[in-house]
Each structure stands twice: as structure tokens, then as C-alpha cells.
Specification:
It is a single chain. By secondary structure, the chain is mostly helical. It has a domain at 6-87 and 123-133: Orthogonal Bundle (Arc Repressor Mutant, subunit A), CATH 1.10.10. The protein is built from 6 helices and 2 strands, in the order H-H-H-E-E-H-H-H. The protein has a two-stranded antiparallel ribbon. The longest helix has 23 residues, at 98-120. The protein is elongated, with a radius of gyration of 18 Å.
């Protein structure tokens, strides 16, 4: 069974959280930490990687935080995966033996390409729509109950 690394899962959750909750203001990392349970120090490293690669944009100032660098319909899960896990199939990733290099590595690269292709079909917009359909409430949209 193929699973995503913890770092990749957390990065996808963080980008989705920003895509889902960033209107009209940037999302602060402390808010993502509270909602997703991601350690702040760890999250900041991931967010900075995503900023450097053009997935997110950092906004400075007292109301600063993070926003998407592009429209959420233009950011795919594959974009995030490539930044975090460097899944671009580098040539130096071989098993060490000729048998592995000739037989196993091409299979792994083909499967990896298929997985990336599937993740490239899903955008942050798609996931935000799924979250809304599932009844997940955006930050700030919670309804307060003042019944006494």
C-alpha cells in the first residue's frame, strides 16, 4: 500500500486550510496549528518551502500570514507533492544493483508518474468544494449561539 509521508500529508492539509480559510484575510500559521494540530515550528518550515516554490505567498504585518500564490483552481495536489517530496524521479535514485536499476526502478518510476498524474487532476478548488459539501465550516463563519 502506498501512503503519503507525514510531512506531505501535513503540507497538503496546510495548503488546503489556507485555500479554505484565507478569505478575506491571510491565514496565520498559529491558526493552522490550532485547527490541524501541526506543530508550529514544523509547520513554518513546510510553509516557507511552499512560499519559495510559488505555491503560497507570505504576507507580513500584524494581520499577516499566508495566502495562495495563485488561484486555488490553479494549484494541484501534484504541485504540493513535488515541492514537499521531490517526486520528480531523479536519476540517482536507484536500488544499487543492476537488476534493481533495470527492472525495479522503472516500475517504481512508472507508478510514481501515475500517482502524480492522478494528483495533478485534483485542485485545491476541488478539495474546498468537497469540504463545503461535507459541512466543514470555514474559520470565521462559525455561528455563535447567544441563547440564554
Amino acid at each position: 500500500m502506498i501512503t503519503l509521508s507525514k510531512k506531505t500529508s501535513l503540507a497538503l492539509e496546510a495548503v488546503l486550510d489556507i485555500a479554505f480559510n484565507s478569505r478575506p484575510h491571510p491565514v496565520q500559521s498559529k491558526d493552522i496549528t490550532e485547527r490541524q494540530g501541526i506543530p508550529q515550528r514544523y509547520l513554518e518550515q513546510v510553509l516557507q518551502q511552499l512560499v519559495r516554490h510559488g505555491i503560497l505567498k507570505g504576507v507580513r504585518g500584524p494581520r499577516g500570514g499566508y495566502t495562495l500564490a495563485k488561484e486555488r483552481r490553479r494549484i494541484t495536489l501534484g504541485d504540493v507533492l513535488r515541492v514537499i517530496d521531490k517526486m520528480d524521479c531523479e536519476d540517482d535514485q536507484t536500488t544499487g544493483s543492476r537488476l534493481g536499476a533495470v527492472i525495479i526502478d522503472p516500475i517504481c518510476k512508472a507508478v510514481q508518474a501515475e500517482i502524480l498524474s492522478r494528483f495533478d487532476e485534483l485542485t485545491m478548488e476541488d478539495l474546498c468544494n468537497q469540504a463545503a459539501e461535507a459541512g466543514i465550516v470555514r474559520a470565521g463563519d462559525e455561528k455563535n449561539d447567544f441563547t440564554i
